[in-house]
Amino acid sequence: MPKREDYIGWDEYFMGVAQLSGLRSKDPNTQVGCCIVSDDNKILSMGYNGLPKGCSDEDFPWERDGDILDETKYAYVTHAELNSILNYRGGSLEGARLYVSLFPCNECAKAIIQAGIRKVVFDSDKYENTPANRAAKRMFDAAGVKYIPYSRTGREIKIMI
Q1: In angstroms, how far is the first alpha carbon of the chain from the final one?
Q2: Do residues 37 and 99 lie in contact, with contact meaning Cβ atoms separated by under 8 Å?
Q3: Residue 137: its pLDDT value, please?
Q4: What is the pLDDT of residues 65-84, one digit of tens each?
Q5: Do the strands 97-102 and 119-124 form a parallel or antiparallel pair, or are they unpaired?
Q6: Which residues, 6+ apart, have CB-to-CB distance to 69 below 8 Å?
Q7: Which of 17, 35, 43, 154 measures 20 to 30 Å from 83, CA to CA?
């Protein structure tokens, strides 16, 4: 019997893991997931956008808009990329690839560069050409971090739990 030929590729697999991780987010507007992978295709870490450990998602705001920073989610939520980097317990991430459902902001770009991650595969670039997006790309370019849009295959994967 020949091996099956309809298995998913590495990019599909890792972006699928990132997308699935994003479903853990309690954010009512934007759910972002991330998966960090070694050169030999081993998952090193995962994360999603959410509050830091010990901060109850019942006690902090989830609003996007407001004149006072600490009355919105932006003062409290840790992005998926930073969570993935902070969740890693194995040593160095030098040379790793990062799969993320939304292009990283400038703050996450700094952490990605400092962690030694060399390639970012992103699904959505919804904030393209915003100041934070331009700054992230400028830093990635300067630091030699490649950023590549994920090529969707159109395959639908259903997970039954």
Answers
A1: 30
A2: yes
A3: 98
A4: 999 999 999 999 999 999 99
A5: parallel
A6: 75
A7: 154
